[in-house]
Write a structure and sequence with these properties.
single chain; 4-stranded mixed sheet; about 60% helix; about 5% strand; globular
Length: about 200
């Protein structure tokens, strides 16, 4: 299998972490791809018209898109139920938490694009502030439940939370999340003890 990725992508990082934790990383060839807003990439668009990272390309040429769907595919390949419960209330709790975290990453990415690609005079501050507030209030929500999350075996929601916090460090280093959310800070530091989390850290900006 091949995984299209960028070291800077928190979505691709999620899949890489999952693949390592599931013991499947040696079965996946990492294929670096460079994508930028507003810049076409005709070759990659042939793989996925959405032009998003990551994409898992199977040995038969079929593709699996969306980081969560890829993790779900890998989890099933590894036997099922390891990172995503197969049934019961916890399944829906973890899937809901993951969707919230995915949305937080989407909002952070939109803030990033607005600030680096749009001419300063054309930037819409209220829009950016709104999206940043979605991520910030999401962190506040998980600050209240992170100890409960951490008491569970590792799952896709915990991985996604690490990717959110790592992306905040990477792209918004002065946002102050560690001071505002000390429980998340402690969770993040503990999770970085896992080799999968450390090896997948984004490069220094």
């Amino acid at each position: 299998m091949k995984l299209t990725f960028s070291p800077a992508s928190p979505f691709a990082r999620k899949v890489r972490i999952a693949a390592i934790e599931l013991g499947l990383i040696d079965k996946i060839e990492l294929t670096p791809v460079t994508l930028a807003p507003g810049q076409p990439n005709a070759e990659y668009s042939k793989i996925s018209p959405l032009k998003k990272l990551p994409v898992l390309i199977l040995d038969n040429g079929d593709i699996v898109v969306d980081s969560y769907v890829i993790v779900e595919y890998l989890d099933e390949l590894a036997g099922g139920g390891r990172l995503i419960p197969t049934s019961g209330p916890l399944k829906w709790k973890i899937k809901t938490d993951h969707s919230l975290l995915q949305g937080m990453l989407d909002s952070m990415l939109l803030c990033r694009y607005e600030n680096i690609t749009r001419p300063e005079a054309s930037r819409w501050k209220a829009w950016t502030d709104d999206h940043w507030n979605r991520a910030w209030m999401g962190m506040a929500r998980f600050e209240k439940q992170v100890e409960e999350m951490q008491a569970r075996p590792l799952d896709v929601a915990q991985i996604a939370l690490v990717c959110v916090l790592g992306y905040a460090d990477f792209r918004f280093p002065d946002c102050g999340w560690r001071k505002a959310y000390p429980k998340l800070d402690a969770f993040h530091e503990k999770m970085l003890e896992r080799p999968s989390m450390k090896v997948s850290l984004p490069p220094i900006a």
